[in-house]
Amino acid sequence: MNTSKEQQPALRAPKWLRTSFAVLEKISPFITSRLATFMFFTPIRFKAPLQELGYLNAAITKTISYKNNKVKVYEWGESTKAVLLVHGWAGRATQVAHLVEPLIAAGYKVYSFDAPGHGNSNGRHTHFLEFSEIIIELNKQFSDIEAIIGHSMGGSACIHAITQGFIPKKCITIGSPSNIDWVLKSYCEQINVSDKIVKMIKDHLERKFVQQFEDLSLSTMVKNINTPGLILHCEDDVDAPVKSAYEIHKNWKNSTLVLCQNLGHRRILKNKDVAQTIIDFLKS
Predict the structure, then answer these.
(1) Which of 6, 58, 63, 173 qualifies as a cystine partner to 155, CB 3.0-4.6 A?
(2) Neighbours of 139 (CB within 10 A)
(3) How far apart are the first and last CA of the chain?
(4) What is the pLDDT of residues 89-138, one digit of tens each?
């Protein structure tokens, strides 16, 4: 699983944004916290590279309604057994679709979707709880889904969906962060705001979702599930440090941890050995 190219974080705040937030915080911490929260729920919509367009063209594309959005759903292959792929924050279905061909070859149909504000779906703002709700809706519409694979924050959405009644036979997370506090603090460090703003955002979100922030951490949610799981993580992942994998594995009974090297946070999705590990787990 080794390659030599070094990975960098996918999202890096520009200097002008960091400076602007530092100035704004001095003027109004409240406005700063609300603006930061607004941006926290606003994914960057990256354009799919040309190499991913083949997956898009090969898919059967459908559209489902979710709240005020039209969500694009993709289907590949023909089988009575299906796997649902869930992309991460600022990702898209075609990013995780590198797994489609090996899964089809192994005898599975594959579904995926572009979450609101991502890929070809409309909308501008979202969060991983909405990803989770869409997973549950797709499970209602496609009864052949028997396993789920989530990349990065998509892994958190998969686990949350399971805690809300989705019952797959197996669940796989790839490069998923374990702690939502760490996600928020990392974001706030990127935009250059203080711990005071971190606490204001956290308090606001706990009121908004009527839930303790820590209860939404992946490493906490897995304590409440019995689904057999595979945790895949790269040791040099800088977007979700490998410590996350150990924390998730510690709390997820009936889980298997597999680490790889030199594949970072995104190239892990394209690796043939990783794909084979996934297939072996699904068939075990």
Answers:
(1) 173
(2) 20
(3) 21
(4) 999 999 999 999 999 999 999 999 999 999 999 999 999 999 999 999 99
Per-residue pLDDT, 12: 72
CA atoms of 67 and 239, how far apart (whole Å): 30
Residue with tokens 């898209």: 92
Supply 107's token pair.
């005898």
**Beta strands 229-234 and 255-260: pairing type?**
parallel
Q: What is the pLDDT of residues 201-224, one digit of tens each?
A: 999 999 999 999 999 999 999 999
Q: Which residues, including other chains, have CB under 8 Å from residue 178's CB and lie 6 or more apart?
A: 217, 218, 219, 240, 243, 244, 245, 247, 248
> If DSSP codes are grouped into helix, strand and coil, which group holds residue 242?
coil
pLDDT tier for residue 9 given thresholds of 50, 70 and 90: low
Contacts of 131 (CB under 8 A, 6+ apart): 86, 115, 153, 154, 157
- Residue extents of the structural domains in the chain: 52-122+129-184+194-199+216-283
Strands 229-234 and 109-113 turn out to be: unpaired
CA distance 255 to 238: 23
Contacts of 216 (CB under 8 A, 6+ apart): 129, 156, 160, 180, 209
Going by CATH, does the domain composed of 52-122+129-184+194-199+216-283 fall within 3.40.50.1820? yes
Q: Cβ atoms within 10 A of the Cβ of 180, count? A: 22
* Token reading at 154: 């998509």
Residue with tokens 């995104």: 266
Check residue 197 and give left, alpha or beta (phi > 0: left; psi -120 to 50: alpha).
alpha
Strand bridging mode 69-76 / 109-113: antiparallel
Q: Please state the pTM of the whole predicted model.
A: 0.93
What would the two tokens of residue 212 be?
A: 């303790």
